[in-house]
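A brief tutorial aside. Many learners find it easier to grasp structure tokens once they have seen a single protein encoded end to end. The record that follows does exactly this for DNA (cytosine-5-)-methyltransferase. Read the sequence first, then the structure, and try to relate runs of similar tokens to stretches of the chain.
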Amino acid sequence: MVDLFAGPGGLDVAAEKLGVATVGLEWDASACQTRRAAGLVTVEADVRDYGPLNFPRANVLAGGPPCQTFTVAGRGTGRKALDEVQHFIKRMVAREERTEIVKDLSRLRDERTRMVLEPLRWALAAIDVENATPYDAIILEQVPAALPVWEAYAAALQHEGYGVDCAILRTEEYGVPQTRRRAVLIARLGDEKVSLPSPTHRRYRRGISREAGDRALQPWRRMADALDRPSDFFVISNYGTGGDPKARGRRASWEPSATVTGKIFRNRVVSARDIELPRFSLSEAGRLQTFPVNYPWSGRDVGQQIGNAVPPRLAMHILCAAFGWDAPDDYLLQSLETWDIRKCSGPIHDAEPSMVHYREQDRPLAGGRLHSGP
């Protein structure tokens, strides 16, 4: 699996536990430092400088391109960004002249609007470029506001012969001890029907018992299930609720965590008697995202690395669905508890990039047969 915008390795951790060798492209130096400490094959680079021919053994494409411009979709800026991306997707699928698309992309104010098109560039290049092979599976994940982009991707990939499903998933419904909503797309080459993973746990509803709801599903997991703390506690968010900075969000240890963000270490942790307790450690913050307890967080801005990551437990469910495999069993899910660098795939299976270099004018933004540069 080649993972674009790979971050500290949430998808890669899940894939490696499933026995799928991975290589991640990431340009943030700190995230790369964490990945290397974990033994994950990493290319510290701009995804725009690479393409499928650089990773000829990869038959799975994954990615979580930056989508911050779409989080204000109700305002003019976000709506315009969505319209622009959807317009470019149609042009790329129509195999419009590459140079014209490159020229128009260069005029965009926000570079992130261009970056969100990169997974599609890779997917189309794998179909069109000489000596490349179409990806068997494609996995994309981002904030809920990215769903209209994934829906446009879905139409594009269906046109190219993929079965696709996309929707917003809730992490607590897959055993993550955290309420978090993510827009997810999975695609698989061929005519077979593709479906996102079915929930395994009940949805969290404030004030409703975890025992209430569908008896076929497990209760949602609590922070106390993931963290080894001796007594009950409350987490007081760094953020206000309802737009009031004084009305801090508050979750108890017998509830799931609120969405883990890059500011997680600013959250206060207090006892039932409102006594200040130690704030979350790196390991604890990672555990709320279902990273292994001993995952080697490194570099700067670790909170941001953790907050931006895909929860590995959710990722394992998504990957199995994308591959057409059965849902992960308890043994596989429990394997996420710890990390052993010696069992990581390492630089094998031709995971390191081949020495193919794309020049700016050769990047297959609009598909079409093309040969690599020198």
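Self-check: Residues 347-351, 355-374 have pLDDT under 50 and may be disordered. If you spotted this yourself, you are ready for the next section.
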